[in-house]
Structure formats: structure tokens, C-alpha cells
Design a protein that fits this description.
Layout lengths: L3 E4 L5 H14 L7 H7 L6 H8 L3 E7 L2 E8 L4 E7 L8 H15 L4 E7 L3 H6 L3 E10 L2 E11 L1
Helix pairs in contact: 1-3
This protein binds coenzyme A.
Amino acid sequence: MNATIREAGEQDFAAIGQLFFETVRSVNLLDYTPQQVAAWAPAVWSEEDCRRRLVGQVVLVAMEQDILVGFITIERDGHIDFLFVHKDRQRQGIGSALLGRAIELARGWSLSGVFTESSITAKALFERHGFVVTKPEDVVRHGVTLRRYRMAKKF
Ligand SMILES: CC(C)(COP(=O)(O)OP(=O)(O)OC[C@H]1O[C@@H](n2cnc3c(N)ncnc32)[C@H](O)[C@@H]1OP(=O)(O)O)[C@@H](O)C(=O)NCCC(=O)NCCS
């Protein structure tokens, strides 16, 4: 893992929006149908979409020089909302490094644990980091049903 991790700023929003779109449309296609990934990521987020979705969250980005290769978001209650790694940088430890840093933050905030709603694709990574499934659920996005898993890790 050659990436460095830092807190995101507004200058990263365009790249975050692009990475989210490309990762959902390619990596998540391993576990979801074309119709499902299209409903999940209908278009590249504009910078304004990014601002709206990420407001109130701590956003960490993984950078290789000036290229965004992943991002994670965590709220002050320990909720991990987004964890996405660049489609060409899968299985290189970037997701684990980002998750590790978010967990460190949560421990620093004296929380008793962290939680997320994981995709099918990310479930193995979260399990590897000590998360357990609390509840499988189906959510509807643009009229299409997607399976995900509520998962939690206690400290
Ligand atoms: C899930 C995701 C963030 C993992 O990032 P990553 O950088 O590839 O993960 P890592 O390289 O740190 O993986 C660490 C370990 O997690 C497990 N793991 C990760 N992805 C896995 C997969 N697709 N299948 C099985 N195990 C997996 C493995 O144990 C892996 O270790 P190994 O590579 O030594 O076997 C990445 O695949 C991704 O962006 N997925 C699409 C987006 C997504 O679904 N995000 C979650 C939304 S809720």
C-alpha cells in the first residue's frame, strides 16, 4: 500500500464523485446486476452532490501522489457511510488502511464501536476487521432493490 491518507477538502470532491461512480459501475458489478449498479450510481456526483452527501462526516482520502485511490467517511456516532477504492487498485490494502484510520478516529472519540451498512462486495473486508452482521436488509434505490448488511464492530 503506497497511498498516503489525509482528511479530504472541497478540492477532492470532483475526484471522489468520479471514483464512486466508476467503482460502483465496475467493482460492484461482480455482486449486483447492471440494473442494480445503475440505480445505485445513476450519474457521476457533481461537486454539489458531493457536498450534500458528505456534509457532517469526516472524509478521509487515500492518495497516490495526486491521484485519489480511495475514500472513507465516518460520522461522530461511529457510522461509516462510504468506503470505496479505485477500480484499478482493488485488493492492495487501501480499503483496510482507510478503515483502520476511521476506526482509530472512532476510538479517539471514545465511542464503544462503529457500524455500517455494507454491500455484498465489502462484507468480507468488514468481517476481516471484526465486524459482524447484525441484520441483512434490502433497500430500494430508484425502484430497484439492493441487498446490503447492517454490520457492527464493538470496541
Ligand atoms: C470493499 C472494498 C472497499 C475493499 O477495498 P480493498 O482495498 O480492495 O480491500 P483490501 O485490499 O484492504 O482487502 C483486505 C481484505 O479484505 C478481504 N476482501 C476484500 N475484498 C474482498 C473480496 N472482493 N472478496 C473477498 N474478500 C475480500 C480479504 O480478506 C482482503 O485480504 P486479501 O486481499 O489479503 O485476501 C473495495 O472492494 C471496494 O471499493 N468495493 C466496492 C465498493 C463497496 O462495495 N463499498 C462498500 C459500500 S457499503
